[in-house]
Design goal:
The chain is an all-alpha fold. The chain is 67% helix and 0% strand. The chain has one domain. Helix 3 runs antiparallel to helix 4. It is elongated, with a radius of gyration of 21 Å. It comes from Bacteroides fragilis.
């Protein structure tokens, strides 16, 4: 209990920063939205016929969700990525 109280005292200002600044949020709704595609993928992989299909789907969904989080178009990113792959570049 003492460790918990020390932690609370040490980080009190940071823990309650949302009260002083409206940009901080209390909830974790954004985190839930970010992880939802991964949980859906985990559930859907039960219905794939092979491990290879599951892995391909996971890679594809990872690309899509990364692009969403970065705020860029998946199609344009994928086209650029494939163009660089065909040039034998590895520093993309």
């Amino acid at each position: 209990m003492q460790t918990t109280l020390n932690y609370l005292h040490k980080f009190w200002d940071r823990l309650f920063a949302y009260r002083k600044d409206g940009e901080y949020t209390i909830g974790n709704l954004a985190d839930g939205r970010a992880i939802r595609p991964l949980t859906v993928q985990r559930k859907n992989r039960l219905f794939f016929c092979s491990t290879k299909e599951t892995l391909r789907s996971a890679v594809y969904n990872t690309f899509i969700e990364t692009c969403k989080q970065a705020g860029i178009s998946f199609r344009s990113f994928f086209c650029k990525y494939m163009t660089e792959i065909w040039k034998d570049r590895t520093d993309y």
